[in-house]
Backbone:
């Protein structure tokens, strides 16, 4: 059951499409303090708290304070409180079990046992909220109801399940050709190459550098013939430059955000001085969305939206102010206090709170200061694109994922998990974020495999791929200036080939699981406790996941580890794929087991009476044979069965029952 409670005058976020009537009765579970602007729940000693989508720390969120404030901060350290998204949905599971979604586009904090260990306190910065409280038979049921409330998750094209190579720094056609060639020469499958900001002309959105990509449509075609999709990046800020049509048109139509006095709000980002399209304005959104046509018409079928928190390097106004103040320091003897102030002046230029209070949106006639709706910006940039794709390419699925997001955006695209680092702890963070993102509707997701910032290692990349072959978005991406991270940069490529090939064998299963999860409002990745609620140990497991109804994953996330302890809530079949092409299986009893996982082995667990389809190896998604699959099964009773979803991978006829077939077997395989 879902009940809605409204406080103040809510700003419409469109996270929820069909809103239930507002309840008059007091909010259940929580004590409400309208002065403090808080909702407080008294947690039982062993209550667990799940959710918050893209965020730091555990699967169980208890024990920390989180802030919903979309932020471009590439230091994903344990002590941070926010990442790029605001996903205000939680499920408390324990003495009482319920879900809560706080629909508020402003800054919110979730103190989950941080100040007081038994208190869950949600604090708003404005008292205009819609609060949804959801009860149900169990956690999975509550999540399902929530997902139904917020609408069906985005479905990407099939090719987006292939492996993608990316790097900030591919500058030209030849750079891209080289990547493809190296993969093809090594017989390692690949479906896409990502174009980072370097493909543009001086970082101008919807331009292609004519010097480095002299004939872009032909190049896109050449790549398509190689079964490669190019996926360009789009940044939120539009370069301020006379004669640049996107800028001029946006100015003429009044589609950019402005300062209080109506003059342009200018922020510096990659293109230099730039304007932010008013993504919260219907007209501006349609206009910005239409710009994607420039690339669609050249054969592009996928995009990633970046810098849409929106990220600000500095604003013109603040820079002038700071420059002025720096003048004052000239020739002065700085005492410690003024030294730190001096230092802070420059470092405080980026993503400055005050800058977010200095510009305005025109929300279809209502003028709203940006900070009140901050968390909706990236969502609406991606929505602009998604709505445009429906108009421009109604028959086709277009790949779209974003860095910043809010619940509601999950209907238009996926998310990648932002600028992580080549750290073992960030591989684990990737694992932990999968289920919480799924809870909030984000199914198409993955992290930068190998890590974005910092130098990766061959071993980290290998272990990350061994997990990444299960995530819908499987992309190796890294920052300019870091160690080259394409798999062919390393000494032993046979292991990489083996692991990435296995991804392609698993795609029929992964794709089927993805679509079923989207169509049925289910989670593709779940914490163990969601399926084994009676098992008190399962609720403590933070480094294993269930995938679909069939698999359990237990990734190795430690340097030099050649195995790990795995907790099995029940007897399962261990499946091991070795680099020599063989597969080995054995039945593992319930309980704690030490499992050997040599560096290039892929290991997962199959649940009783389950089977999954496994395709023959393929070099790209187009070559996968979805019909002639073998079944990998664990028959404990009489039979193992699987509900197999399979369609053409491109059309939108999702609900056609012909796409479902039941596979079953009575034999071990
Ligand atoms: O300020 O476009 O998260 O994936 O490579 C950095 C360059 C801007 C941040 C993205 C990252 C991308 C990078 N971008």
Residues:
């Amino acid at each position: 059951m879902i009940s809605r409670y409204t406080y103040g005058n809510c700003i419409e976020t469109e996270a929820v499409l069909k809103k239930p009537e507002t309840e008059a009765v007091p909010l259940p579970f929580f004590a409400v303090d309208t002065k403090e602007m808080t909702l407080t729940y008294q947690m039982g000693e062993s209550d667990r708290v799940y959710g918050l989508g893209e965020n730091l720390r555990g699967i169980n969120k208890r024990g920390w304070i989180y802030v919903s404030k979309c932020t471009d901060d590439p230091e994903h350290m344990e002590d941070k409180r926010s990442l790029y998204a605001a996903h205000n949905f939680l499920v408390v599971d324990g003495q009482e079990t319920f879900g809560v979604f706080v629909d508020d586009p402003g800054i919110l904090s979730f103190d989950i046992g941080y100040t007081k260990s038994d208190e869950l306190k949600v604090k708003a910065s404005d008292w205009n909220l819609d609060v949804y409280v959801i009860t149900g038979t169990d956690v999975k049921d509550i999540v399902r109801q929530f997902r139904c409330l917020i609408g069906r998750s985005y479905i990407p094209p099939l090719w987006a399940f292939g492996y993608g190579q990316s790097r900030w720094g591919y500058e030209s056609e030849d750079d891209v050709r080289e990547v493809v060639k190296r993969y093809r020469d090594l017989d390692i499958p690949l479906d896409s190459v990502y174009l980072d900001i370097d493909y543009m002309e001086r970082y101008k959105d919807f331009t292609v550098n004519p010097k480095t990509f002299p004939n872009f449509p032909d190049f896109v075609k050449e790549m398509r013939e190689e079964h490669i999709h190019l996926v360009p990046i789009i940044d939120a800020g539009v370069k301020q430059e006379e004669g640049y049509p996107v800028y001029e048109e946006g100015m003429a139509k009044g589609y950019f955000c402005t300062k209080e006095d109506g003059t342009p709000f200018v922020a510096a980002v990659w293109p230099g001085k730039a304007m932010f399209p008013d993504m919260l304005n219907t007209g501006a959104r349609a206009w910005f969305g239409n710009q994607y046509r420039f690339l669609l018409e050249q054969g592009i079928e996928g995009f990633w939206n970046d810098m849409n928190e929106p990220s600000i390097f500095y604003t013109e106004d603040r820079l002038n102010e700071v420059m002025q103040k720096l003048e004052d320091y000239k020739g002065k003897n700085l005492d410690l206090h003024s030294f730190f102030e001096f230092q802070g002046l420059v470092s405080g230029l980026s993503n400055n709170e005050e800058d977010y209070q200095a510009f305005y949106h025109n929300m279809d006639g209502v003028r709203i200061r940006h900070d009140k709706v901050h968390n909706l910006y990236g969502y609406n940039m991606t929505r602009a694109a998604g709505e445009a794709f429906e108009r421009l390419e109604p028959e086709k699925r277009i790949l779209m994922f974003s860095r910043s997001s809010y619940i509601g955006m999950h209907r238009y695209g996926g998310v990648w998990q932002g600028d992580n680092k080549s750290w073992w702890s960030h591989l684990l963070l990737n694992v932990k974020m999968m289920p919480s993102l799924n809870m909030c509707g984000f199914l198409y997701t993955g992290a930068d495999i190998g890590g974005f910032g910092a130098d990766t290692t061959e071993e980290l990349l290998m272990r990350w791929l061994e997990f990444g072959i299960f995530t819908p978005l499987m992309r190796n991406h890294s920052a300019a200036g870091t160690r080259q991270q394409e798999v062919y940069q390393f000494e032993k490529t046979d292991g990489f080939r083996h692991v990435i090939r296995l991804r392609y064998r698993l795609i029929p299963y992964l794709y089927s699981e993805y679509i079923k999860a989207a169509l049925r409002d289910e989670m593709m990745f779940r914490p163990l406790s969601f399926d084994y609620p009676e098992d008190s140990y399962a609720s403590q497991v933070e480094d294993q996941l269930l995938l679909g109804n069939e698999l359990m994953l237990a990734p190795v996330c430690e340097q030099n580890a050649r195995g790990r302890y795995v907790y099995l809530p029940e007897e399962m079949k261990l499946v091991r794929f070795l680099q020599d092409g063989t597969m080995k299986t054995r039945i593992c009893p319930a309980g704690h087991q030490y499992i050997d996982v040599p560096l290039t082995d892929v290991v997962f667990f199959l649940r009783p009476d389950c089977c999954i389809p496994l395709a023959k190896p393929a070099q790209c998604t187009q070559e996968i044979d979805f019909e002639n699959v073998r079944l990998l099964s664990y028959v404990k009773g009489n039979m193992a069965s699987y509900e197999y979803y399979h369609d053409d991978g491109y059309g939108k006829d999702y609900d056609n029952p012909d796409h479902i077939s039941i596979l079953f077997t009575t034999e071990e395989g």
Observations:
- Residues 168, 196-197, 233, 306-307, 403, 418-419, 477 surround MIG (CB under 6 Å).
- The mean pLDDT is 97.
- The longest strand covers residues 229-235.
- DSSP finds 14 helices and 39 strands in the chain.
